[in-house]
TrEMBL record, chain A:
The chain crosses the membrane at residues 12-35, 42-62, 68-87, 99-118, 153-172, 202-223, 280-298. Keywords: Amino-acid transport, Cell inner membrane, Cell membrane, Membrane, Transmembrane, Transmembrane helix, Transport. It is found in: Cell membrane. CDD domains: TM_PBP1_LivH_like. It is a multi-pass membrane protein. Belongs to the binding-protein-dependent transport system permease family. LivHM subfamily. This is Branched-chain amino acid transporter permease subunit LivH. GO terms for molecular function: L-isoleucine transmembrane transporter activity; L-leucine transmembrane transporter activity; L-phenylalanine transmembrane transporter activity; L-valine transmembrane transporter activity. The keyword Cell inner membrane applies. GO terms for cellular component: plasma membrane.
Automatic annotation (TrEMBL), chain B:
The chain crosses the membrane at residues 19-38, 59-80, 100-120, 132-162, 174-195, 270-289, 357-381, 393-409. Pfam families: BPD_transp_2, DUF3382. Keywords: Cell membrane, Membrane, Transmembrane, Transmembrane helix. It is found in: Cell membrane. It comes from Bradyrhizobium neotropicale. This is Branched-chain amino acid ABC transporter permease.
Amino acid sequence: MDYFAQQLINGLVLGSIYGLIAIGYTMVYGIVGMINFAHGDIFMIGGFIALITFLILISLGLTAIPVILLVVLLVSMAITALYGWTIERIAYRPLRHSFRLAPMLSAIGMSFVLTNYSQVAQGARVKPIPPFITGGYTLHESPDGFVIQLSNIQIMVVVTTIVLLAIFTWLVSRTRLGRDMRACEQDQTMAALLGVNVDRTISMTFVIGAALAAVAGLMYLLYYGLVDFFMGFVAGIKAFTAAVLGGIGSLPGAMLGGLAIGLIETFWSAYFSVEYKDVAAFSILIVVLIFMPTGLLGRPEVEKV
Amino acid sequence: MTTIPQTTHASRTAGIPSILKTAVINALVALVLFSLMVGIRTEAGSDGQLTYWTRFGELASLVAVVFGGSIVIELLRQWIGPSGAERLVPPAVHTGMAFVGRFLAPALLIFALLVPVIFYNQRYILDLAILVLTYVMLGWGLNVVVGLAGLLDLGYVAFYAVGAYSYALLATNFGWSFWVCLPLAGILAAFWGMLLGFPVLRLRGDYLAIVTLAFGEIIRLVIINWQELTGGPNGVSGIPRPTLLGIPLDNSDDGLAAKLGIEYSPTHRIVFLFYLILAMALLTNWVTIRLRRLPIGRAWEALREDEVACRALGINTTSTKLTAFATGAMFGGFAGAFFATRQGFISPESFTFQESALVLAIVVLGGMGSQLGVALAALTMIGGFELFRGLETYRMLVFGMAMVLIMIWRPRGLIGHRAPTVFLTKAKAISSDLVKEGHG
């Protein structure tokens, strides 16, 4: 039971990170109708920028951890958002009215570009950082000595995710930008006729998605203490799996799917085998799509002839 | 009426200040983008401590390149004219293209047949030609699934892997010969294709893409982790070389060279492998062309154009999709068996998502459904890849950029039109813009 509880905590933390990435996928899919394959690599870039900012701040002699964290968060969100914006501008916008496969292949190409760009720019070796946020709480200690730990970093990941989700939900449901986004999702032509700047709205979608991915990258860096140039691919596929599992296009679905994938992966590693944890996640994806092609919270797609 | 030409005229000859403004903005964006990623280089030291140093020189030159590049692009854009405008091709060029098109395929075939004769002493070129032909075959195989049936498959490399491992394991464990294993590898891959086909029958478009991707990854992960069977990351080595009807092509007494009474040379095996893959690729092409004229091929193309209409006409979409997957997978399996026997060693590293993306890029670049286009695209891609062999780290970077640029420049591929398979009196090539790619 204690072991189970510990794994539950670990799974929720991992799931929060996946959920943050999955939101980027699901938003872009909802509005533009394409799989942004490069999104996983945006997450990786976010992690790298966070790492470099950390290094600079520490070497500048800053010691106040909250200040460092805030600066790193803002810098990595800002620069990664600019990456998202630039990629949309270069690789996706010219293809918006092209045939369906074109933006997807362009995105796959962009994913290769980003992966290899960071390999060339930062080297192929794994970049570790020393544990930055230490300490935690012991929730429960069982008689046989097993301890349920809740570390500060885990609390931070979950709290940050919840706060971001709240901000994001407010953004989508209450602001002008959110209304524009929902309008574009339903009908781009009609939205444009009613005075919505479609290009700008789509750009902002990519910017917000990239910023959330940057936060996920920072969380990943703090939680696992390392980044490498290849981590975007697997994380990206899993986050996409999460988005599909939750019902693509649905924002709460993305978070739910992220948590589900995180839990499945953690429990599978804990009770069955670590080697096959990715196989488990992908198999779940296939099984869900067979029996529930629209995901957990997705709307059924009505096909018009 | 009068304002429209004026505005287009004005936008075409935007002044130098506006070009400079665009370039400055682009350079600023580049400066921010590259500031940390390029300007600062991190490396983990021997004690696990991260160190960093600055590279402002590289950063400055990159920003300068972006600045200069955007000026050049803006000037080019004005020179060529507004993008998206209909470019009229004179009829003379059209007939010329048609003439070239008619003779290009036979010319390429004759050239391919003569490659070992012309380049007999250039081992490097022969190896490269074999590699190109392997990708031509993979491209033609995937073309059945993506180009004909319109089912987007991002996990094609899984079948390549199944074929390669089938041959490798059967040959190393039971000593079965290549010619027995080749059909078996194809059948096994086709079986896996059917297995993948069943769950994805109800899926369309991007969902299908992601499930096939997941499937490809599952196969690769299972190969890595099932160490007792596959050797895990170490792969399978010592895979037997193919024989010519049981006669080995080696230096031994009963080798082919000894039997024919000529002096042995390792090139014999390379030439044999070349003709083997050429024959296999041509077989793929021939089968595909013949299948397109059978009801099943017609059903594939109907499925690509409109699944609902297809069902309304009484076509069994289940069996149509499954046969498309199985046929495509079978060719992938053949190619995999060939790959295993050529390399003599296989490991999961050869079957990453990158390979799937490469083959898919070949098919799309070739113009989805055009056999000649796929062959040309494979030649361009693999040849271009080889040009960057010296710059190992930059190779995939350039490949990715090329993929993006080609998609922007010619989203419909190099050969942008194709002849319809069904016509009344005269085959008239139609632009592939008129052909839908289906919803998978």
